[in-house]
């Protein structure tokens, strides 16, 4: 499971020959095993398992890595909004993005953690430029929002 979770988290995929890739860069089994602190044979067995199950193969041979600007946003002139809410409640993304759109702010990126993979999932949005105080107040007052963090 550790290998599968890391693959989902990073976009590492397996090809039809059981080799691991990040985009078009091959990653040796030993590198994955060291990063996860597990035996390299587990990494190899995971690739074999993926390729032996059509459902797993359909998922884990098609993953792609995505550049996420959250940690570099200050260098790009962006602001990050992190919302913790009740992920089982429908409409969280819709409600938050409607407030942002109403104030004519541009969302450059948005990522909602999968509640099945992350203990306390968050909605993270990279916003172009500064966020006016009235937008922050409006977001904080939403019923679906448990906590709000702004990173400049």
Structural account:
- The chain has 152 residues and is of the alpha+beta class.
- The chain has two domains: 2-60, no CATH class; 70-151, Alpha-Beta Plaits (2-Layer Sandwich).
- The chain is 39% helix and 24% strand.
- It has seven helices and seven strands.
- The strands form two sheets. A four-stranded antiparallel sheet has the order 5-6-4-7. Strands 1-2-3 form a three-stranded antiparallel sheet.
- Strand 2 and strand 3 (25-27) form a beta hairpin.
- It is elongated, with a radius of gyration of 19 Å.
- The mean pLDDT is 94.
Compose a concise summary of this entry.
The chain is of the alpha+beta class and 152 residues long.
State mean pLDDT (0 to 100 scale).
94
CATH topology descriptor of the largest domain: Alpha-Beta Plaits
- The amount of helix comes to 25-40%
Which architecture of the largest domain does the CATH hierarchy give at level 2?
Answer: 2-Layer Sandwich
Sheet/helix structural class: alpha+beta
What is the count of β-strands? 7
Order of helices and strands: HEEEHHHHEHEEHE
Question: Which class of the largest domain in CATH terms?
Answer: Alpha Beta
For the biggest β-sheet, the strand order reads 5-6-4-7
